Amino acid sequence: MKREVPVAISALVGLVLLIDYFFKIPSIRTMATEIQDWGLIIAAFALALAAVNLLRIHVSRIGKWNRNSIHSFILVAAMLITVFSGIVLGRQSKPFDFIFQAIFNPLASAFYAMTAFHLASASYRAFRAKNAQAAALLIAGVLLMLGRAPIGEAMWSRFPKIADWIMGVVNLAGSRGILISTAVGMVGVSLRVLTGIDRSHLGGGAE
Amino acid sequence: MEFFKRLGEIDNRVIYILLILSLLIPLMKPLGLPISVGAHTRRSFSVIDKLQAGDRVIVDISYSVSGAADVQPQAVAILKHLFDKGAKAIFVTTVTEGPMIIESLVKPWEQAGKRYGVDFCNLGFLAGGENAIAMYCRDIKKAYPTDYRGNATSELPVLEGIHSAGDVKMYIFFSTQNSDMYVRQVTQYKIPIIGGLINTIAPQAEPYVNAGQLAGILVGLRGGAEYEILMKSPGMGVASMDAQSMGHLLIIMSVVLGNLSYFLTRSAKPVKKGAVK
Amino acid sequence: MSSDPKVWVASILTIMAYSYLFKENEFYKAMEHLYVGVAAGYTVVMGYTNVVSKVWEPLTKKGSWWVLIPAVIGLCLFAPYIGARYAWLRRIPVAVIAAIGAALSARTAVTEQFVQQLRASMISLTTLDNVIIALGTLATLSYFIFTVRPNPVLRAGAEAGKWVIMVTLGAAFGAGIMGRISLLIGRLFLLFQDWIPLIKPR
């Protein structure tokens, strides 16, 4: 019962959306629109789930105060201040804008951009042409970089054409093959989910 | 040989400093290398250029702030093109940062006289990923009962007569995610789709452009720089191109030197006693 | 130097984050936690906004009571926090979201990713590029066929497919590096144009 009900709901939701797409029946269309809209509302609640989990973990760490608890304190304080400024003071308020412009935006950008340093280091230490196929990968990457940077074009006017050929011919064939393969896989997985054969997303635990 | 052995033991921090210098110096002292405009950017420009004054376009700003440096110059240039032509923009987003990014993009235009609700609107964030895209394309006012600024969408003049994505002239998305979900959910409305993509995901979008499912794409910072050139309005993209060139050269040299060091020192390494050859 | 407090805070936080490149330290860890906290808070605010506009306002202003159904289903996500007895209830919202996702992608993947892409591969083999595109696609596809007993043709196709995939990954590798360099350039503009004016605005 505790597993069958969610599986039945999955099947029903899936069936309505599939019938709507392939048969265009007005009453089913209204139902499908409503279901999709419900999905948006549920997804909005799901956004808070991660935050609640984080809060539980870090509040308990603050409770057992030790050297590292200061980090948990920073996390919890940052979360609560952001929520307060966004919900109580408003999304158009100056504090919320300040948090976005001065904290969230630069830190998100800084952490993601840090991968440039790691890639530079890896390009020196890890990207080795240990066999012919690895060499093909590296050569394609290097030619693409030369073709897409103005200096490559200044060095040899054919570099951009070579880069276009890699992207528009070989990469096109490879990406298309991968795309078609993933489409087949996706349809298979989706049907397994909708028919209840695959229930892994429902999680384990007591019946 | 000793030189290559030492080269292989170089400290990571030296590489980091070299990377910063290789980018910073050309930003301070630009080389002024010419930038040619690629076919993808040209095609996107000509598709957008066909818009008439008053045409309405859905613009999905779904790039995260972390990837903004690669995509934002494209968004700034295309937005200028849209507004210069008198087109109206309906902004939507499926990433949480999106509404704030949209607000910062429209701020200069609002100050220049573009009217909120009439020339553009910011419908804000919608949770749900692919379902959000499918839903706002299907019934935009049901998906968004209110906009980001708290107005009822039924009262916004810019949305008058618009029910689904089929009622607008074009769909433009800027994304740091894969373009698959946009193609899956928007192509059925038979309107031209333009994608502004972060470099990383651009190779996977080639099949969609080739098949005509995407009318055009802009690829990364270079795509932004090329669009700025077509708009005759050089900005952040063009200013970054020399630095990008030097960064690429440094990485290429690193790959070449790293491999040289590896192959030359590998053959010179003594075989340990008892090791299996 | 900039007189904007936002630029000062953003720049100092960026430097504290990048101190990790020198050595892992307390400043970096603090920035890591600060970022996660703010990002989580920001997500909550945006989720709240959606709930207000799609549940609270329709309920209070229009009396649309049925929006309570998805709201209650959404709240079931938090059922495990009430007690283990109710934990299974979270499967209901998960089932709805998974089913919507599966149905939405399955129904259009067939037409947009499978049929349209196969159709685009049916090209006249009059140029070398077209031959490479058509055969390259077939070779890549044969690499992903695991359900048929391998035969010499399939094996040869899969081997050729491996080469095509390697060049495709090479393109992704090159594109990945270009993207990361762009992001770092963005940070340098913050530090050396907005904060310390070493880069002249053009």
Structure, briefly:
Chain B has 277 residues and is of the alpha/beta class.
Distance between the termini of chain C: 18 Å
Major sheet of chain B: 6 strands, parallel
Provide the domain count of chain B: 2
Q: How much beta of chain B, percentage-wise?
A: 5-15%
CATH architecture of the largest domain in chain B: 3-Layer(aba) Sandwich
The Rg value of chain C, from CA coordinates, equals: 27 Å
Task: Kindly provide the radius of gyration of chain B, computed on alpha-carbon positions and rounded to a whole number of angstroms.
Answer: 23 Å
Q: Averaged pLDDT of chain B, please?
A: 92
- Give the end-to-end Cα distance of chain B, rounded to a whole number of Å: 23 Å
User: What is the H-and-E element order of chain C?
Assistant: HHHHHH
- Label the overall shape of chain B: elongated
Structural class by sheet pairing and helices of chain B: alpha/beta
What does this protein look like?
The complex is a heterotrimer of chains A (207), B (277) and C (202). Chain A has 207 residues and is mostly helical. Helices cover 83% and strands 0% of the residues of chain A. Among the domains of chain A are: 1-67; 129-201, no CATH class. Chain A has helices at residues 4-23, 26-63, 69-89, 94-125, 132-148, 150-155, 159-195. The longest helix of chain A is centred in the N-terminal third of the chain and has 38 residues, at 26-63. Chain A is extended. The mean pLDDT of chain A is 92. Chain B has 277 residues and is of the alpha/beta class. Chain B has a 6-stranded parallel sheet, with helices on both faces. Chain C folds into 3 domains: 1-63, no CATH class; 76-122; 124-202. Helices cover 74% and strands 0% of the residues of chain C. The model of chain C has no long low-confidence stretch (mean pLDDT 93). At the A-C interface, α1, α2, α3, α4 and α5 of A face α1, α2, α3, α4 and α5 of C. Chain A: Keywords: Membrane, Transmembrane, Transmembrane helix.
